[in-house]
Amino acid sequence: MAKTHAIRIAEFGGPDKMQWQEIDVSAPGPGELLLRQTACGLNFIDTYHRSGLYPIPLPSGLGLEAAAVVEGVGSGVTEFKVGDRVGYNSGPIGAYAQRRVYPAAKVVKLPDGIDDPTAAAMLLRGMTVEYLIRRTYPVKKGQTVLFHAAAGGAGLIAGQWLAHLGVTVIGTVGSDEKAKLARAHGYHHVINYRRENFVARVKEITGGKGVPVVYDGVGKDVFLASLDCLSPRGMMVTFGNASGPSPAVEPLTLLQKGSLFLTRPTLGNYTATREELVESAKALFEVVLSGAVKIRVNQTYPLKDAAQSHRDLEARKTTGSTVLLP
Which alpha helices (DSSP H) does 41-135 contain, by range? Predict the structure, then answer.
């Protein structure tokens, strides 16, 4: 049993509940890897776990995403060896740590052309974008789509990837600075929702037709209005709730607004098998290595200062990806 440091919470609440603690780390068991973590990703879902919006058993660590180096290999593991560079983007929760034991089946190897901070900044958001645009609603060249929070981590990846696929991308942002950032990352039309009615602008851009799909990671603030952006038989994809949970919708509402589809997907269900996980990562690595999608780490914090990163994320002071350095 060795010692390491990690961010832990004993109760739900604000960022002040996050504590930098010395903890024990065990040797890897069957099917497990001992990881020395080199960079940890910051994601909005981490704040949901911390606040209790998505309840988790307490006490607990935080974080779902990291890049790491394999330091130990448990019995039965054949795909990885000591020294391999790897990454992951799912539970068990506890990525905010210097070292940890983690299931080998949930880890992917990192290609040489992608460094550790970049990997930690892209695995969760990038694979989220992958399943959203390739599998939840597979976009087609020539379509026009709406993606909310265009200057966020997923938004900046989505704008580039969608533009690469020949899709016209409309994005929403909350400031002129974020609008400029979104335009630099593939968005053809950027709407500042604080100044403009995004429904009216979407209708204007599409000649009154609306869009076949809306990708919404914002939730409460934009959800209902987003339904009015859709063309008949369009799909509302609500995959996050940065502004709070989306309101309930009566099935009859979907009929009245044009026989709409509504789905609430999550990455775990789209990477549930080893094959799906590896294929999703492969698709992401390919577009990044080709240069079609560029990942920019716009903020870094020492891991021990993760509480401040949560404050800044929730105050919408961050853009793109943020990485915590152990």
Answer: 44-51, 116-131
> If you ran DSSP here, which 8-state letter would residue 252 be given?
H
CATH class of the 141-264 domain in this structure: alpha beta
Cα separation values, 311 from 96, 272, 284, Å: 16, 31, 29
Helix 153-164 vs helix 274-289: crossing angle, to nearest 10: 70
Q: What are the domain boundaries of the chain?
A: 2-122+295-325, 141-264
Res. 114: pLDDT tops 80: yes
Q: How many CB atoms lie within 10 A of CB 247?
A: 9
Task: Please state, as a whole number, how many other Cβ atoms lie within 10 Å of the Cβ of residue 6.
Answer: 25
Packing angle of the helix pair 153-164, 176-183 (nearest 10 deg): 30
DSSP state of 97: B
Q: Of all helices (H) and strands (E), which one includes residue 169? A: strand 168-173
The torsion of the CA quartet 196, 221, 123, 121, rounded to 10 degrees, works out to 60
**Average of per-residue pLDDT across 146-150:** 96
**Distance (Å, whole) CA 49 – CA 28:** 25
Mean pLDDT, the chain, rounded, equals 96
Query: Span 135-145, mean pLDDT?
Result: 98
Topology (CATH level 3) of domain 2-122+295-325: Quinone Oxidoreductase; Chain A, domain 1 (3.90.180)
Are the C-beta atoms of residues 180 and 150 closer than 8 Å to each other?
no
- What residues have CB less than 8 Å from 325, skipping those under 6 apart? 39, 40, 117, 300, 301, 302, 303
Q: pLDDT tier at 27 (50, 70, 90 boundaries)?
A: very high
Q: Do domains 2-122+295-325 and 141-264 have the same CATH topology?
A: no
Beta strands at 230-238 and 19-25: parallel, antiparallel or unpaired: unpaired
The H or E element containing residue 251 is: helix 251-256
Handedness of CA 86, 92, 94, 97 (dihedral sign): negative
